[in-house]
Specification:
151 residues, mainly alpha, 2 domains, membrane, transmembrane helix, transmembrane, DUF1468, Tripartite tricarboxylate transporter TctB family protein
Length: 151
């Protein structure tokens, strides 16, 4: 294991093996054409295949590529802030529901990252989660967390 790609590929193979283990432990449903474990298993195997390709990749890392990996201290704050917003979104998802938590997340994250067109941000932050919620609940019959909203 000489290169960064090889080290990273071993980590990804171990991660996907754990992911596949958890995927095989998902509950099976008797009367569904595609079970809930299908997509996680496919993604786990695809990750293993891609990690094996990464392990045998012959490209070497140049000094320019090593410099690109260095994250400036200013951007670390941005990454941590967006990560905090993601964790807050996950925490609020069941409490206030998919539509409200997604709208708040999209608006806050867009605003924090510098997108200042208020009308466009509000339109996207409200319409996208609402359309997704209605599509999943009423067209696909997949229930998303309702939360505080009455529909």
């Amino acid at each position: 294991m000489k290169t960064l790609n090889q080290k990273l590929s071993v980590f990804l193979i171990l991660l996907s093996a754990g992911y596949l283990y958890l995927s095989y432990n998902l509950k099976e449903y008797p009367y569904v054409p595609v079970d809930s474990d299908f997509l996680p298993k496919v993604l786990g195997y695809v990750l293993i295949v891609l990690a094996v390709f990464l392990f045998f990749d012959k490209s070497s890392e140049t000094e320019e590529e090593k410099e690109k990996r260095q994250v400036p201290k200013k951007e670390i704050f941005v990454l941590l802030a967006v990560g905090g917003m993601i964790f807050l979104y996950i925490f609020l998802l069941e409490i206030i529901g998919f539509v409200l938590s997604s709208s708040l997340f999209i608006f806050a994250c867009s605003w924090f990252l510098g997108y200042r067109k208020l009308k466009t941000t509000l339109l996207v932050a409200i319409l996208f989660p609402l359309i997704m919620y209605l599509s999943f609940n009423y067209l696909l019959q997949i229930r998303l967390p309702q939360g505080l909203l009455p529909f």
